[in-house]
Task: structure prediction
Amino acid sequence: MQTILLVEDDATLAEALTYNLEREGYTVLRASDGMTALEMARRDAPDILVLDVMLPRLDGFSVCRMLRKESTIPILMLTARQDEVDRIAGLELGADDYLTKPFSVGELLARIRAILRRSDRQPTTERDAVVIGGIKLDTGSRRVWRDETEVQLSQKEFDLLACLMRNRGLALSRDVLLERVWGGDYVGDGRTVDVHIRWLREKIEADPSTPAYVQTVRGIGYRFDTPKAHE
Result:
């Protein structure tokens, strides 16, 4: 089940969109201001962000710009303004598509499906190979290298690393990692994630006690970073 983070400060519209999106089988998370949206996008790693431009605390353009420095999460922007300059600005900041209010639910659903299809149809070489700093991960062959030396990982260690690397810079909670790596039917708790993180660090970090890549985010979970030496 794919997750949508809906960012809309109009409560009536947000309720209506949530109802229709959930009817289509999506899990919907909601935020009503830009700062909360940014925090939720980093913490919950949704599959797509449906982002209103005019928001309190932090506008949609700023949210889009900040997320694009950290993540490739698909973004569909919404606006009540008809100005072409706004649409161009949103796309230049990295939004995947732009929808002007008022719009039909059918059009919104079609745009969301199209964006999600495109994100799933990246070229094989781009989709399969992830390189961050000195770590290279190939999901096609399920192989990992650290500074050109191959590292042997278990299945869960590999899946955990892949999830973290694909969401570089985003803090992923233990619950999100359990869901994405072990599956929704898994009976366990966050300690399972902690143990696998420890094993993973022992294999990919030069100094596991002072990790350069897999960072602990206090009170949340873990984040994969690019070491300063590789920036």
Q: What stands out?
A: The first helix runs from residue 11 to 23. Confidence is low (pLDDT under 50) at residues 121-126. The chain has two domains: 3-120, 125-230. The domain at 125-230 is CATH 1.10.10.10 (Arc Repressor Mutant, subunit A).
